[in-house]
Write a structure and sequence with these properties.
Oligomer: single chain
Number of helices: 2
Shape: rod-shaped
Number of strands: 0
Distance between the termini: 62 Å
Structural class: mainly alpha
């Protein structure tokens, strides 16, 4: 049901089988809470991935600054054979 595929069909089958609408509350709660959980999980994974990329970029920048400082000049990313 967390995938949101066909949950309403299952809810209506339970309603008709048990002749009660009490299961509607259960299904709606599971879908809403599950949906928020999945959304937060995806957001957390994206945030974590972004932080890893940012840390790698910061390390490269720091290495470049250290190299520039040790050489006493600016280091550029020019292709070979260009002036």
């Amino acid at each position: 049901m967390f995938t949101m595929d066909g949950w309403s069909d299952v809810m209506f089958m339970m309603r008709h089988a048990k002749k009660s609408t009490a299961y509607d509350i259960y299904f709606l709660a599971v879908v809403y809470i599950g949906g928020f959980f999945v959304l937060n999980l995806v957001a957390a994974i994206q945030f974590s991935y972004y932080n890893v990329i940012k840390m790698e970029r910061d390390k490269k920048i720091e290495k470049k600054k250290d190299l520039e400082k040790s050489l006493g000049r600016s280091v550029t990313n020019k292709p070979a054979g260009t002036t």
